[in-house]
Design brief:
There is one protein chain. The protein is an alpha+beta fold and 198 residues long. The protein has two domains: 11-63, no CATH class; 73-193, no CATH class. 28% of the residues lie in helices and 21% in strands. The protein contains three helices and nine strands. It has helices at residues 16-35, 40-63, 161-171, and strands spanning 8-11, 66-71, 74-77, 93-96, 100-107, 118-124, 151-153, 177-179, 191-193. A five-stranded mixed sheet has the order 7-6-5-8-9, covered by helices on one side. The protein has a four-stranded antiparallel sheet with strand order 1-2-3-4. The longest helix is centred in the N-terminal third of the chain and has 24 residues, at 40-63.
Length: 198
């Protein structure tokens, strides 16, 4: 089945803590089962610990929350998992296309161009309503009107720039996707990705 050409969605992967808990439970559960015949109290404790350490991974796989979505309604920035905890729930932000001037991918604060620490932000049009009270400029973003509420780190999920550019060209043809991570902005102008750019 082919993906909807007017929709791009990326979901969070399991966090490191959830993966560690799953690995620990894989070690504890067989040990508990092996000890059940001779050391029942110890086996029960190990079994319970194995189940508890697996819970964050199971919940993460069940929920698989949206990190980023672009569709006909606009752009949704999912919850920001700064602490990497699978069960944390923050408010997602949706920006309608009428308020979007451009999508920008830029190095995180203090990261030089070309590094893997990236952020994605939405430069909103002048006069667009505030996303949250007291929202200030996004640190590290060289463009104006990109606020903290309209940015997310590209961490714990994968950004497919080509797919994003293709969907944006279909649902909002006048909105460019600007990538500032692959270039040094002090030397050359930013590249604007189109649907056929590499």
């Amino acid at each position: 089945m082919y993906p909807d050409p007017g929709r791009y969605e990326a979901r969070y992967r399991l966090s490191r803590a959830a993966n560690l808990g799953l690995a620990t439970s894989f070690a504890l559960l067989p040990t508990a089962i092996g000890l059940m015949a001779h050391y029942l109290p110890i086996a029960l404790v190990l079994f319970v610990l194995g189940v508890i350490t697996a819970l964050p991974a199971v919940a993460g796989l069940a929920v698989r929350r949206t990190a980023f979505r672009a569709d006909y309604a606009g752009i949704t920035l999912g919850s920001d998992l700064r602490d990497g905890w699978t069960l944390r729930w923050d408010r997602a932000v949706t920006v309608p296309w009428a308020d979007v001037e451009q999508i920008v991918i830029y190095p995180g604060p203090g990261s030089p161009a070309g590094t893997r620490a990236r952020r994605i932000g939405i430069q909103r049009r002048p006069g667009a309503p505030e996303l949250s009270p007291g929202d200030g400029p996004a640190p590290g973003c060289p463009l104006p009107r990109v606020t903290v509420a309209a940015t997310r780190p590209v961490s714990g999920w994968r950004l497919d720039r080509d797919r994003l550019a293709a969907v944006t060209a279909i649902v909002a043809p006048g909105v460019p996707v600007t990538d500032l991570t692959a270039i040094d902005t002090s030397i050359s102008p930013p590249s604007i990705l189109g649907p056929s750019d590499p």
